[in-house]
Amino acid sequence: MNNFQQKRKVAFVTGATSGLGLAIANQLANEGYIVYGGGRRQPRESTGANFTYVSIDVTSDTSVLRAKDFILSREDRLDLLVLAAGYGVSGSIEETPMEEAKAQFEVNFFGVARTVQAMLPVMRAKGGGKIIVFGSVAGKIGMPFQGYYSASKFALEGFVESIRYEVSPFGIDVCVVEPGDFKTGFTDARKKIAPENSPYREKMLTVLGIQERDETHGVDPAVAARRIVALAASRKFPIRISVGPLFERFAIWARRFLPDALFEVFYRMNYKL
What we know:
By secondary structure, this protein is of the alpha/beta class. The protein has a single domain (about 5-270), classed as Rossmann fold (3-Layer(aba) Sandwich). The protein is about 50% helix and about 15% strand. The chain has helices at about 5, 20-30, 60-70, 100-110, 110-125, 145-165, 185-190, 200-215, 220-235, 245-255, 260-270; strands at about 10-15, 35-40, 50-55, 80-85, 90, 130-135, 170-180, 190-195, 240-245. The strands form 2 sheets. Strands 3-2-1-4-6-7-9 form a 7-stranded parallel β-sheet, with helices on both faces. A two-stranded parallel ribbon has the order 5-8. Helix 2 (about 20-30) crosses helix 9 (about 220-235) and helix 4 (about 100-110) runs parallel beside helix 6. About 40% of the residues are buried. The model is unreliable at about 1-5 (pLDDT under 50).
């Protein structure tokens, strides 16, 4: 490793083979980071010269540790960890099988926890670093027919608040990012549970249609990527930030200040419930 490489920061991004994760990994690479992009399959889109693909399944302890060992075989530190792996399950809470609910948490929540546990010793040993966890607007506002997805993202909010106290003495900063709707493959990858004879089916399809319309008309992932790169370079690291359409960021603000009953009326109107 030459002196120039030693001065460049090292980043590991999970979920970096598509969508927001890939956009962030590419943006970091363009900014001069040495980027390791993790996912279960190779990116379909082209990546920059500073991007190295790392095979990882965040639901597997063995896979996560193997990814860590691969990075450490090439680098002596980790400066930035971005946790963007995740997917969505839609369906009524009543009709979503427990196996599907557990799988949702295994990726969206425990996948984050598992990767953080593996990488923290590396960051502590080198005197610090930054961790960016991808939550969601749905982690601040419960989404109809996305109950288990919302719950997995709500869990990340508490996770980040807690871990910040624990790791700050070691020079490690942690932030949760709450993205709204972006134009990615998330919509097509969503798993839908809507039995033909379901009493929820009609309402669910109406709500899901509105949600998917907003997603397909969402913001370019490059916007989030630029925001994350700026966050990574910032000296002040907030507990949380929201990115995405103005309306959704306003909804997070409104959720904090409006009475519950009034906000629920507002949300019912939005989703025609």
